[in-house]
Amino acid sequence: MNKDKRIAILSRLREANPTPTTELEFSSPFELLIAVLLSAQATDVSVNKATKGLFAAAPTPSAMLALGVDGVKQHIKTIGLFNTKAENVIKTCQILQDQHGGQVPENREALEALPGVGRKTANVVLNTAFGWPTIAVDTHIFRVSNRMKFAPGKNVDEVEQKLLKVVPAEFKIDVHHWLILHGRYTCVARKPKCGSCIIEDLCEFKEKTE
Ligand code: SF4
After folding, report:
1. Active site residues
2. Distance 180 CA to ligand 1 centre (A)
3. Entry pTM
């Protein structure tokens, strides 16, 4: 795909949704970190249902530590992998408390050192809580980037590097949300909704649906 087409796609996505953001509900970097940690292999809707009560009971690392692993489990047991996630939440809170003064560090290395936090989660937190131009590649972004030939790559790391290279600076902060939302609601996995896609004329997928 050439540069002009990519810019046209991004411009159109921006026009349709000028201020995109995550569908996870949060009111602080700490809540965003925990919500993203819980969202692995779970929908944002299911995470939001669980975090409503969890964040009301424990909006800070120290309050989460007071809740303990079993207390966290009570709030998140409707989410997949809740046992491991509850343990990671508590271990993460302990590190935040001991090493970062109870704050979420604005630092990739420190974020990736937290239990249950990988590159993707760190990218989301750096982007959405701190405004860094990082691009977290999840299953939706991976699929959409390859399908449209927007930023093809064999794995999520390759797609991330390609996106960082080809997306102009003015679009970098928001591209992650535009592509996720496009993949979640229009360019869906099984049968993309090409007939109602706002970038259909620009997309280079060869097997478009009606
Ligand atoms: S035209 Fe179809 S394949 Fe291309 S981006 Fe739109 S929904 Fe996806």
Report:
1. 120, 138
2. 13
3. 0.90
